[in-house]
Design brief:
homodimer; mainly alpha; elongated; DNA-binding
Chain lengths: 227, 227
DNA sequence: ACTAAAAACTAACCAATAGTAAGTTTTATG
DNA sequence: CATAAAACTTACTATTGGTTAGTTTTTAGT
């Protein structure tokens, strides 16, 4: 009883290796030989499982987006109020295991593939749409529909912007700083009296603690590694 | 009396050709042969003027950033108040000749070079710093120092974010939409009573009209082409 | 104007790269 | 156990970035 076919295992191994190669060398200097070397197989095996480099890169792109969305889902399990779910989205997007210089640089490298790769484009669109709808679902509790739409789009763009900067600049961006920047936007765009300020603060604190356990745990990392 | 050396003319021609190649094919499919073909010279000439591909890409990157900053400078000439200068920065970053799908896609392609190319990194840092200081200069008129810093950074990141999205998504982002999104952020982050709302509105309108003339004119485009 | 040096350009080459094709081994299945 | 399918290997090709050595053109000093 094998739960996964050899093919899907190999594809997972190879896209992980390719991701590692992009992290180490950047997209332009990532070759199929290097990917093979990292995975411990020959270039031929890489091309047997991915018919061309573009297909491999699409898998890498999909993989890194999946890791992110799974972090959100994982934190959702513990979030009980709109405040907490809103913060779950934000914290998941900037948790240290995912939001760090290496990964952000790789992401910046990878998105250059998007404009000329339909598969990547679909992934990217789905990804944007998912985060937008996640945000909308919570923001509706705080704002009228039309306003919520604007804020959802604004926060989505802001998250992308912070990721790009973190990938472009040589100085690392601390997760804390990134989250605080989003917090600043929220404090300006959502109703923010003394009561809600406290609720936001508590929600952020709670989700941050949960994230340490839920996302930082070896179990979650292993799960993320598998696929 | 030749104002420019052959070298600088060729380098300009070649980096324009390289930019065109990146627009057409994406960074990964941009080869020195194609760049040469677009410029009407052999690959050898390209490598004679740029010692390697990285150097050429750095020039392309620098060139596209220069175009942007010159647009800001051009609009500054007509901006007379902090409101107008603030809007000059915003409008310049989203003017149709610069902010369009082709250019945004090329930009997204090019930034993948940044993490592993020191020269590009310097350009990028200088660019971020310039726009931040431009924004700060005006925001100080509306906000206390510490608040102005946060807003300046936020708007800078938002501009990057909008550019990335415009490059990633297949549906074009209208300049008007982009500017309105920034306007939304401004309306939430700057003091915004009836009086200032009108002042912003007038400033935006005035600068938009000037941009049509100053940035849309053949003279400006030719000037931009030269270097 | 003449010449020497510097710059612009060309062409032949090389190693690395993405991708193909044809074959061999391993695994799954009736 | 036989057969087909999937996994893997190897050898090959065309394209690519980059080098080198040489030729032509431009520049500058006398």
């Amino acid at each position: 009883m094998r739960s996964k076919s050899i093919r899907s295992i190999r594809r997972a191994e190879l896209s992980r290796a390719a991701f590692e190669a992009v992290v180490q060398f950047g997209l332009r200097r990532t070759t199929l030989d290097k990917v093979g070397a990292i995975a411990g197989v020959s270039k031929g095996v890489v091309l047997h499982h991915f018919k061309e480099k573009s297909a491999l890169l699409e898998a890498v792109f999909r993989r890194s987006n999946t890791l992110l969305s799974e972090s959100v889902i994982e934190l959702y399990r513990y979030a009980e109020t709109p405040y907490e779910r809103l913060w779950a989205i934000i914290i998941a997007n900037f948790f240290e295991t995912i939001f760090n210089r290496r990964v952000c640089q790789a992401w910046v490298s990878l998105i250059s593939e998007v404009p000329h790769n339909e598969g990547c484009q679909r992934v990217q669109i789905a990804n944007n749409e998912r985060i937008r709808s996640n945000l909308m679902h919570e923001l509706r509790h705080f704002l009228p529909e039309s306003e919520a739409q604007k804020v959802a789009r604004h926060l989505g763009v802001q998250i992308d912007g912070i990721w790009v900067r973190a990938g472009l600049l040589p100085t690392p961006v601390e997760p804390d700083v990134a989250v605080s920047e989003i917090e600043f936007a929220i404090s300006k765009m959502l109703p923010f009296d003394e009561i809600s300020a406290v609720k936001h603060k508590n929600a952020r604190k709670k989700i941050e603690q949960i994230a340490q356990i839920a996302l930082g745990s070896k179990a979650f990392k292993d799960k993320a590694m598998q696929e």
